[in-house]
Amino acid sequence: MVLSKLTRRWFAVTAGIFIPMLFMSAANAEYKLNLTEGVTPISQDLYGLHMLVFWICVVIAALVFGIMAWSIFYHRKSRGAKASNFHESTTVEIIWTIAPLLILIAVAVPATSTLLDLEDATTDADINLQVTGIQWKWKYNFIDEDVEFISSLAQSSRDVVKDPLANANYLLEVDEPLVLPINKKIRFLFHSNDVIHAWFVPALAVKQDAIPGFVNDSWALIEKVGTYRGQCAELCGKEHGFMPIVVEAVTQVDYEKWLEAKKVEALAVAAAAEEKWSMEDLIAKGETVYKVNCSGCHGVTGAGIPGVFPAMTGSDIVLGDIADHIDIIVNGKAGTAMAAFKSQLSDVDIAAVVTFERNALGNSVGDMVQPSAITGLR
Amino acid sequence: MTNATTTVDHDDHDDHGPAYGITRWITTTNHKDIGTLYLWFAFIMLLTGGTMAMVIRAELFQPGLQFVEPQFFNQMTTMHGLIMVFGAIMPAFVGLANWMLPLMIGAPDMALPRMNNWSFWILPFAFTMLLSTLLMEGGGPAFGWTFYAPLSTTYAPASTDYFIFGVHLMGISSVMGAINVIATILNMRAPGMTLMKMPLFVWTWLITAYLLIAVMPVLAGAVTMMLTDRHFGTSFFDASGGGDPVMFQHIFWFFGHPEVYIMILPAFGIISAIIPTFARKPLFGYSSMVYATGSIAILSFMVWAHHMFTTGMPVAGELYFMYATILISIPTGVKVFNWVTTMWRGSMTFETPMLWALGFIVMFTIGGLSGLMLGVAPVDTQYHDTYFVVAHFHYVLVTGALYSIIAAYYYWVPKWTGNMYNETLGKIHFWWSTIAVNVLFFPQHFLGLAGMPRRIPDYALQFAEFNKISSIGGFAFGLAQLFFLYIIIKTIKGGKKSTDIVWEGATGLEFEALPSPAPYHSFNIAPEVK
Questions:
Q1: Catalytic residue at B300?
Q2: Please, what is the average pLDDT of chain B?
């Protein structure tokens, strides 16, 4: 094809604009092109399968596009090509139906065995870990160890959403990372409290939906000590982009130390509920709790989103009877997005956030509730 | 000829043209007018949905939240998807069907012209209703175009009911359009036009129409169950009431997978018309093309759960859906091989429609191959819900379906207006769009493989570079379609007069038996097909 003069000039101009733009930031840029090989046997199998299918696709594409290009170049009218009239051949049709079928079988065989392996989470599992998706954080429960905690986006990411370039782990860091031992088969049991989430850590080759009313499982055997990051992969509402996952893979010894520390921490939290708290301390604590657990819907300033999420500022519930206020936080509100926070927050957290909401965010009711008063409501 | 006008029969419409002014368009039952309405509607929707894509790409230009809030971002991705699928691609194909099916089979009009008027005029109301949700308190639908429960039921904004009713209306419009297509093709073919002589565009539309009738009611059922879950105390999709959120996905994709073929089969028909014309050689393997289309349509009903490999299906289910899915690549491959063989030893020229058609074959094949990768269930664990999927379906829908629609425009517009478009501008439009669209979507494969999830308003720094490149491509591609608008208007207003045959190698009734432009009433006397 002969390009007109105008087209050629346009080409030159576009190339002149775009090509430098593409490489402007190339000096310190990260251009990762391929799937991760990961750190589990499954992730390596998946990588191998991915490369196999990829190269098959490349060969098919090269053949098809090569023949097309040859034809476009040699069988053009401007080179004096005369059109033939052939338009049918059952033999050819059969050949190009059978040949792809054989290729597909060659793909399906390894894919089947990998899939069977991938789906076998129960055999010889060393650790059972329940993972619950909650708008918009993850709850981890080591079923055999009586250790559970909630992991949400770190404050250091929340603080810089307007200009995150200085934070290398922006949106991929959490307040409480999940710690797992290496060389153990970990069986994940996924569940959700509200909408559908998906727990996705590429290096572990785990992506499984967390669905309300269902328990799904998956597994990983991590072979290398390290920090592995992932994100929620299923659209789960407003803060879907802000519920990361951090897995710290450590040795068995470090893992056991971590478990011990978690248990001590839990005792301290329980003990704190027995104490008598001052209003100032509760409000200060409540602000942190509010930012992590409430501000996603009700807004950092308590404004909410009209028509979707109620405002806290001037809310009838917040300004009304404190017992009703506590009840909606502890038990949630059926049929709405308001979750029951008794399964997510400690007594101190609930007392703190109630006191905070009543005496901040533009409200000044002036009353407070002690953590010990929450204990009886569970 | 002089006394021909005096002997005009009363029933002959040659003596009057269309009504004047706006009533022409509101009351028209003429297939050409309705086709034009559909095509303009689709183009307006393309620009509307495209504007939303520009908002998305602007927000994703760099890490951090710069322009929009996450809730609004989710409304943009949701609306972009709904508008492009139901407002741009589908109505554009129906518009092409309205214009071209009667001309291709030698019929005077569609079989059910008044219903034809109605099925179009539902659409502006449906989309006004859908778009109005953006202005409501709480905003529009923000749960993705796939509207998975319970995010779209218990957790959705109040405006969701408008969305539900809008989808009902679109479904009614589509089903009526499909009934009309089937009635026209089966009843109104010119004498001698046997089924196996029909142009492939007619064949692919016939099969598409059956798909529409089969699956649009399923979608209507899904949104109706959502409605009763939201307001009337049922719990179809609410696990706490004994319902099943995964069942929603099964129902949705039982509609959704045939739907993707609804958006690509007519494209196959267009490409099968254009390639032989510019290769000056008959289509290779006509009957295998018909059978391949049929097989794709049948298989499309049996593979829906490949969208759901991470929902915890039993392993036997995953195996079955993997095998069935990768099997679809065989009839699809047959089509590509047939097109390439049609070009082989032809005598090719490369006018604008041919360029778009060749662009379609290359880039649709890229999208098809990434689809094959996605079909391999175990590896889908890594690809699912990442930008790899976004790249895949934009390759098949933008450089696939949309490219075929643009190719069809350039191919048939001389027959519609009697004017040739400007060849230089058409070629600029092609090369501009094609470079831009690859800058836009190719890097998204890399983003997906690196693990960037879909539908996020903000992302980690490791994804920054390719997102920036992708956004630049996005803006350039958006601008190219405004340039297309300029070409469309310029061609309507004037241009070199087209010959009746339009293209040297053109075949078919619309080129061989009608002048350019095609008269307002054509084939009042059925042509004879040998």
A1: no
A2: 94
